[in-house]
Specification:
The protein is of the alpha+beta class and about 90 residues long. It has one domain: N-terminal domain of TfIIb. About 40% of the residues lie in helices and about 20% in strands. The chain has 3 helices and 5 strands. Strands 1, 2, 3, 4 and 5 form a 5-stranded antiparallel β-sheet that branches. A hairpin with a 2-residue loop joins strand 1 (about 45-50) and strand 2 (about 50-55). The longest helix is centred in the N-terminal third of the chain and has 22 residues, at about 1-25. The N and C termini lie far apart (about 45 Å).
């Protein structure tokens, strides 16, 4: 039983480290980068809000994640803003 506890503690350790690393990247995206980034679906402007990049086009409304400080500008990874709140 002591070995099981040790494995659980070791398995939990990377989760804590990953969380700390993600939280350390909650700083704003560089404005120069935001100026050139566009929504890959509609080519609309994106804004940084609530730790995500949001397309400002009212018909598109895709929200792109930011992982470890890097915007993930893939349509398959995006969520519609109205689906996110549901």
């Amino acid at each position: 039983m002591g070995q099981t506890r040790m494995l659980v503690k070791l398995a939990a350790l990377p989760i804590v480290c990953n969380t700390a690393r993600v939280l350390s990247h909650m700083e704003p995206i560089n404005q120069a980068l935001l100026d050139i980034l566009v929504c890959p679906k509609c080519r609309g402007k994106v804004v940084h809000r609530d730790g995500k990049l949001r397309c400002t086009d009212t018909a598109c409304r895709l929200v792109y994640p930011i992982r470890e400080g890097i915007p993930v500008m893939l349509i398959d990874e995006a969520i519609r803003a109205d689906e996110q709140t549901a």
